[in-house]
Amino acid sequence: MGTILVTGALGQIGSELVRELRSQVGSDGVVASDVRGPVELESGIFVQLDVLDRDALDGVVREHNVDTIYHLAAILSAAAERAPDLAWKVNMDGSLNVLQVAKERGVSKVFIPSSIAAFGPSTPLDDTPQDTIQRPNAIYGITKVAMELMGDYYFEKFGVDCRGVRFPGLISYRTPPGGGTTDYAIDMFVAALRGQPYTCYLSPTTSLDMMYMPDALKAAIGLMAADSKQLKHRNSFNVSAFALTPERLAEAIRVHVPSFHCEYKSEKVRQGIADSWPNNMDDTAAREEWGWKPDYDLNMMVVDMLEKLPAFLDRFPSHD
Ligand code: NAD
Ligand code: AKB
């Protein structure tokens, strides 16, 4: 039986997905990889791998008999605006390397996540339809739309079974987020638990679609397990959990940490990006085609974050 390769495995999603997949298929069934490293994992294989190095990627796929790839290596929205050339290279060339190697080596399934960032200012922001206008105006979103299309193209043209979801902003406690626009939500929990005030870089009423990490893992693994014949879409499905504004999250945290104080000082680049992203996506297609349904609402997420994050707090940078 082949193994599962996870690229970008040290990131916010990868660090959790590797653990989840290993709990399902066993430690040796999952090869974790990242451009950073080398690292000592609690268990299982780790390979230092730059997805821009196509030969190295090909070597890992061959050596470990990889038959499934979760491709998570990427540059996220705010970091991408600071380094658009790098973002294009990693998000486009790196992803194309994955698709090409998958095609040549007969990898049976590939997961490439998209994002709410694949939409733009001319997209309907409420109940954002599965199939609608996609004209993002930030480099990250532009690469996301392009890779949605390339995933479909590789499936139609070469039979590479590439699938993806459009993740909302993800909230989690194990690994700091990698430079996105939605990171404020995690920063707020960190500040509240440290007894510090927080200055949010988005306005208090900026609404964005958000999701708790256990639901994101459920979505990725659920879509990969779905019966191919039932899928009318493939790259990428809207998946949604709850709409969130900074002021609503601050209030929800204050129910448990009454002393938490949040100020707002909107920052041009991230505010501009956030204003162009959906408040909430219509995920009917995912529900109908492969049975998607989230488990966590806002309040369940807040309670779980406040319970679990303290054990990992020293991993998070300070935002004073
Ligand atoms: P992250 O920034 O936390 O992690 C990305 C990882 O990729 C990092 O560990 C980084 O070292 C690695 N990386 C960067 N360049 C690389 C290269 N050239 N070769 C190999 N590895 C490289 O990102 P994440 O939040 O885990 O996101 C994973 C995927 O999910 C990305 O495609 C992202 O766009 C998508 N996504 C994330 C969110 C979210 O809220 N976290 C939301 C929507 C979509
Ligand atoms: C980001 O803010 O860049 C990510 C995303 C929603 O894609 N969290």
Please describe what this structure looks like.
The protein has 320 residues and is an alpha/beta fold. The protein has 11 helices and 13 strands. It has helices at residues 14-25, 54-63, 77-82, 84-105, 139-158, 184-194, 213-225, 246-254, 268-275, 284-290, 298-308; strands spanning 3-7, 30-34, 45-48, 66-71, 109-111, 114-115, 161-167, 169-171, 198-200, 208-212, 235-238, 242-244, 262-264. Strand 6 (114-115), helix 5 and strand 7 (161-167) form a beta-alpha-beta unit. The longest helix is centred in the first third of the chain and has 22 residues, at 84-105. Residues 76-77, 115-117, 140, 169, 180-182 line the site of 2-amino-3-ketobutyric acid.
Give the tally of structural domains. Answer: 2
Query: What is the percent of helical residues?
Result: 40-55%
Give the count of helical stretches. 11
Q: Give me the strand/helix succession.
A: EHEEHEHHEEHEEHEEHEEHEHHH
**Average residue pLDDT:** 97
* Main β sheet profile: 8 strands, parallel
- Give the C-level CATH assignment of the largest domain: Alpha Beta
Distance between the termini: 49 Å
| Ligands (ions, cofactors included) | nicotinamide-adenine-dinucleotide, 2-amino-3-ketobutyric acid
Uncertain parts = none
Under the CATH scheme, the architecture of the largest domain is 3-Layer(aba) Sandwich
Q: Which structural class fits the helix and strand makeup?
A: alpha/beta
Strand content is 15-25%
Q: In angstroms, what is the radius of gyration?
A: 19 Å
